[in-house]
Amino acid sequence: MTGKCFDLFTNITYFIDLFNSYTLLLMKIRYFVIIINILPMLYLGLEFLILVLKEYFTRLDEVNNEKLRFSIMTFFFVVISSLIMLINDIKNLTLILPIITFGTAVGIILMFLFMYMNKKLSQANGLIISIGFSLYIFSSILRGFLAQLAELKGIFIAELIDMFIYLIIFVGFITKPKYS
What we know:
Blueprint (H helix, E strand, L loop, with lengths): L1 H14 L4 H35 L7 H25 L3 H4 L3 H21 L8 H24 L1 H24 L6
């Protein structure tokens, strides 16, 4: 929720033309923090993806797994960081968030669906969590467009949608599945 408050603050200062260059710098710093926070989730998501791919590709051993994961994570970090540094306005910067969150969210969705379908998770409802993260992907795409079209009002709507989605994800973590 701290990030949501920060997003609202930076968007309000941007739209009322206070400290635009500082606001852009703060947003870029925030996006770098997001990237750093997403890397561990990306690592875990890639671990699950590689586990599934191992069944189809016999050449994936532990050493190759680590190299592949490290290569993908490095590529992700370099490309997204370069994009963030090159963009010079907040409206276009907000369009990068879906790119940042998409891969990790898909990994989380697949991981929790797998655990739900195989009845591996008894303390949380993987189906509800997967639905919540699916909605999160949709909302992160929607946020960029709402910011472009409806500006401040659109951002408030997007933030409210996100808070509702976080509530769904939270319910998934505190609700036990029917099979437990």
